[in-house]
Amino acid sequence: MEVLLFMSFFAFLCVRVAKRKGRSPALWGTLGLLTGFVGLAICLLFPKKKSSNAGASGDLPSWGYSQPGRAATNPPISPPVVARPAPSSFARGDERFGGAPREKEFVRFLNEASPTNPAKYNSAIAVVSPFLVNPVLLDTSSIEQAHDVAEASKFLMENSNTTMFDTDSLARLNKVASLRCIELSIVAGPGYLSQPGIGEAIGRMVITHVLGALQPYKFDELWFSHCFENYKKNLTASLLSEGVVGNVLVGTHGLGAIFGAAQKADKRSRKGRYSPSDLQILRTLAAQHRPVVTFVARYQQAMGWQTTTWDPVSIFEPSK
How far is the CA of 202 from the CAs of 59, 171, 284, 295, in angstroms? Predict the structure, then answer.
């Protein structure tokens, strides 16, 4: 009987730690029950599972490429393994080989040609390959180049055999190129964004890569506002969910916080109560999402729309 209680105690600890790290409580609880301290030690050593919520990541300022004049923060992205090399004429848009007639019409070619068209496939490879080999090139790319890279990498992810490409590299390149295109478009201002289709295309990139939301059926100021409101609701729910303050306390003070401050903080959050120290922790977490909101406001201002003044920290400010 004593042994069973002893093992149950470790199972309980494993469940608590697993929840804080985003791991499976059932799996780690079972391991804790069967292996005792060994299971708990392994669970503590496992890193916290990263959230897949792109819209609430708060990492927007780190665009994924280095600033001009600085070394790249990420290693070079591995180039794709291509079944057959693309003729160099595709990079020049040579029409004799079925390539895009001119470089500026590449995106139109991608949109109009059939996905099974070999010229379309090879043109996409020709566009992304230099940036996969040397991502720093995006630092000095133009709006058109960044847009072409974003469209070409998206096409390859959707239409290529996954065994032929490093899909993680393509996905990372797609996001970096999209963010570069958004930034340059906002800097270009209302004159550029007011051109037919440009404002919508950039807005849809903001929805996908900044807010992490699903694309609306149509696009206008109202629908963009709906996407932003959903982002705010999801962020608020995430910050107010049980265990957020406890996770911070465990990360700061270690395992001892599980039995003390973290456990009490979790109990308070279940009841919707927060101590002054809890609120300070939550304000600090909320402040990490300010760059995302600032980015949205810049896009709205460039489009001539009503600009948000919402501050994520206001979630935890007392009502006036």
Answer: 19, 18, 30, 12
Burial class (CB in 10 A: 0-12, 13-18, 19+), 13: buried
Integer-rounded Cα Rg, in Å, for the chain is 24
Instruction: Give 217-241 pLDDT, tens digit per residue.
Output: 889 999 999 999 999 999 999 888 8
Give whole-number Cα distances, 285 to 69, 202, 231, 238, in Å: 31, 28, 16, 11
Question: In 10 A of CB 156, how many CB atoms?
Answer: 21
Provide the whole-model pTM: 0.64
Contact 193, 217 (CB under 8 A): no
Give Cβ neighbours of residue 113 (< 8 Å, ≥ 6 apart): 119, 120
Q: At what angle do helices 276-287 and 244-253 cross, to 10 degrees?
A: 90
Instruction: With CA atoms as reference, report the closest residue to 164 among 90, 86, 100.
Output: 86
Share of the chain above pLDDT 70, in %: 63
Q: What is the DSSP string of 13-39?
A: HHHHHHHHTT--HHHHHHHHHHHTHHH
Distance CA 228, CA 51 (A): 19
Residue whose C-alpha is closest to residue 286's, from 320, 238, 229, 250:
238
Shortest CA distance to 119 belongs to which of 103, 99, 96? 99
Whether 80 has a pLDDT exceeding 60, the answer reads no
Residue 302, judged by CB atoms within 10 A of its CB (0-12, 13-18, 19+), counts as buried
